Amino acid sequence: MVRAALKSLLGRKLRLLMSTFAIVLGVAFVAGSLVFSDTLSRSFTALFASTVGDVVVRPVGGQTVDGTPSTRTVPAALLDELRTLPGAARVDGNVNAFGVFVVDKKNKVVGGFGPPAIGANWTTAPAGHGLEGLSITVGHEPHGSDEVVLDARTAAKADYFVGERVHLVTAANRASLTPRLVGIADFEHGGSLNGATLAIFDTATAQRLFLGGKDAFTDVWVTARAGVSQAELRDQVATVLPATVEAVTGDKAADEAASQLLDAISFLTTFLLIFAGIALVVGAFLIVNTFSMLVAQRSRELALLRALGASKRQVTWSVQLEAFVLGAVGSTLGLGLGVLLAMGIRAFFARYGLDLSGQPLIFAPRTVVAAYAVGVLVTMAAAWLPARRTSRIAPVQALRDDVALPESALHRRLLLGAVLTVLGLGLLYLGLFSDAPHGGYLVGGGVLAILLGVSSASPVISQPFLALTRATYGALFGSVGRLAGQNALRNPRRTTATASALMIGLTLACTMAIVGDSAKSSIDKSVADNFIGDFVVSNVFGGPFSPSIANRMAKVDGVERIVRERYAFVKRDGDRQGMAATDPAEIDGLNLRTPTGSTADLRDGTVLLAKKWAADHDLGIGDSVTLQMPTGKQTYGVVGTFEDNPLVFTPILTTLKTLTDAGFPDQDNALVVFARDQVGVQHDLEQVVADLPIVTVKNEAEFAQEQRAPIDQFVKLIYALLGLALVIAVLGIVNTLALSVIERTREVGLLRAIGLSRAQLRWMITLESVVIAVLGALLGVVLGIGFGVALMYALRDQGLEVISVPTSQLAVFLVLALLIGVLAAVFPARRAARLDILRAIATE
């Protein structure tokens, strides 16, 4: 039986390899995601291990929730006391700041998105455990306010050489700097900053730029003497520290930093694995269809095996053995393709600053196990139902000239489909419209259940469409059209199973089209209804910028007033929460609508809350909100609520001084500018930031466009990934038609014998393919509209008030389906037309 199964597999190599391609893509996504994730994890773990000392002394609350330095520092006087400890070999103070961008000679920012732009002071302190840190490989260390050192990758990318002036943009009071490059820093024996940019000054200059001249440090490294462990040194250090400063081992500090960053970007792996799941689900339809047709075509062969003494179980497991081999081959190819995919992902993110080019790919054992487990199990599970159907073959059927494998009753498929659809609707409702935990999983499970339910019931619900198609084809294309329509209708289970693969891809594509179009329409409406002032000034990377910019813009002729806005992340009850701040004297410029309270009541130490957020948390005037700030837990009184506003992105609004008193830097995130003459003033405002490429000046239309841009990029990325699912669906149609031609070889020969030309035969098969593609497209568009509208309705309280169905895009999807149907038929139709008539008629 094993030999028979393997010979059967080798006899149908091309057909089965087409099915394998679906598994290859799915496994490649799984393997590629895991390889990239492991590479990312190892890279950041190694990086942070080389950027901490044996013991790190840091202020309590020295970092904000998003990992940037707060204004809390370690006093310089403490270093002398630390040097007296018996376990300390040396003590070095560090000054670090984020938002120090390097601008190249073409006035373009190096990096920007993703990895941070760091400013620091130069020290020769060794990393923990004696690990190699950065060293000066070209030139010398910086001295004085007019000298800077850059990391090697940044200097090369910006095309700067030692001796040249470097253009830097900071979020500190001095917005623009042009020091001379005096050195290049690098890891001499390999290593990378993973795309971060680093500008290094001497300690006095760094303190003046980033700490306002205060004789202090953002943290301190204490290096252990030989034979002293990190834990022992930490305990010694802790005995001399004040309550506002803490000591942690370098290992702990590195783990915390790496874990925080990896948690923040873990969505990348999840995102890719979701599409791996989509590819595998679509591929499963192709495998089910392929094995169903192969088992049906081999039914006489299998019956003969039964007549020769093979048991039902042996025949069933012979098909499963074929599936196992197919899954193993697909997993092996997918594993290799996954490595290439991981390299592609690495190159893709390098374009956006996350440069891992200096890191080798990590090929962990879990990747191999996951790849083979996924590929083999999905293939065998998909082949199980067709394999089970072989048990219905009786040995006596081997004596018949033709054997038809009995189809499952359509009413049972309809019942199963109805149950799955109802279950899916319930899960979808819970995920979208209730506060049930793990809502995302419920939505995903609901969507999958509905797709499977519609697929199961589609042989019944699609029969009117198939009957209409047969009649329409007959009217338009005569006998060829009637034959094509009858062929599609004669086996609705097979037709709809093939169409279902295309349905899944188009359902998700249509859903994302509606979500994207609705989100952009909601942004346009919100900006049109609530935009205030004449211009908005912001950082193109979403971060802060120098407060000196507002001071300079206020002096521009024609500017009447400027409203500063700042944003920060804090914690409330352990959860991350956004918080905004503005000047109480200028708050009326934001044109906030306050259902309760008044903007005039906002003062230092108080907050205004977004109306819906306040209602969700049962808060109102007179209540208080306790937030975890860099300076510790702080309680603020609620003085009112405000309606949604496109320029206030957070549900909590306070004053500028409240934020700075809580330990946040004196940096702006946005400016609202009011002017007398828009045209003339915009040019003058742009001249203020002409040498600051991270800062832009936008009018209402430009601001709306900037808000829409990320949505467009995200939707395009989704389309690109869903394109792989559509490729699998096209292969499914090709495979089904190719197997159908083989199954109908005698029929094709008879049609040719009675006068059907090659061109008519090709046209007939093309029309069959179009039926499958259009059916899948119609089901996909209908389900996509339903999912998209439901999702946007559930998000209506999140500021996405407009539900927009992009009919032009949906029409493009339908036209694309027609094109898919025509292209998918090329190979099967060509093969059918080349059949020898006499041999085809003689085929059993």
UniProtKB/TrEMBL annotation:
<feature type="domain" description="ABC3 transporter permease C-terminal">
    <location>
        <begin position="274"/>
        <end position="395"/>
    </location>
</feature>
<feature type="domain" description="ABC3 transporter permease C-terminal">
    <location>
        <begin position="721"/>
        <end position="836"/>
    </location>
</feature>
<feature type="transmembrane region" description="Helical">
    <location>
        <begin position="717"/>
        <end position="742"/>
    </location>
</feature>
<feature type="transmembrane region" description="Helical">
    <location>
        <begin position="810"/>
        <end position="829"/>
    </location>
</feature>
<comment type="similarity">
    <text>Belongs to the ABC-4 integral membrane protein family.</text>
</comment>
<keyword id="KW-1133">Transmembrane helix</keyword>
<feature type="domain" description="MacB-like periplasmic core">
    <location>
        <begin position="495"/>
        <end position="680"/>
    </location>
</feature>
<feature type="transmembrane region" description="Helical">
    <location>
        <begin position="414"/>
        <end position="433"/>
    </location>
</feature>
<feature type="transmembrane region" description="Helical">
    <location>
        <begin position="763"/>
        <end position="790"/>
    </location>
</feature>
<dbReference type="InterPro" id="IPR025857">
    <property type="entry name" value="MacB_PCD"/>
</dbReference>
<keyword id="KW-0812">Transmembrane</keyword>
<protein>
    <submittedName>
        <fullName>Putative ABC transport system permease protein</fullName>
    </submittedName>
</protein>
<feature type="transmembrane region" description="Helical">
    <location>
        <begin position="439"/>
        <end position="461"/>
    </location>
</feature>
<feature type="transmembrane region" description="Helical">
    <location>
        <begin position="271"/>
        <end position="296"/>
    </location>
</feature>
<dbReference type="InterPro" id="IPR003838">
    <property type="entry name" value="ABC3_permease_C"/>
</dbReference>
<dbReference type="GO" id="GO:0005886">
    <property type="term" value="C:plasma membrane"/>
</dbReference>
<feature type="domain" description="MacB-like periplasmic core">
    <location>
        <begin position="17"/>
        <end position="239"/>
    </location>
</feature>
<feature type="transmembrane region" description="Helical">
    <location>
        <begin position="323"/>
        <end position="349"/>
    </location>
</feature>
<feature type="transmembrane region" description="Helical">
    <location>
        <begin position="497"/>
        <end position="516"/>
    </location>
</feature>
<feature type="transmembrane region" description="Helical">
    <location>
        <begin position="369"/>
        <end position="387"/>
    </location>
</feature>
<dbReference type="InterPro" id="IPR050250">
    <property type="entry name" value="Macrolide_Exporter_MacB"/>
</dbReference>
<dbReference type="Pfam" id="PF02687">
    <property type="entry name" value="FtsX"/>
</dbReference>
<keyword id="KW-0472">Membrane</keyword>
<keyword id="KW-1003">Cell membrane</keyword>
<dbReference type="Pfam" id="PF12704">
    <property type="entry name" value="MacB_PCD"/>
</dbReference>
<dbReference type="GO" id="GO:0022857">
    <property type="term" value="F:transmembrane transporter activity"/>
</dbReference>
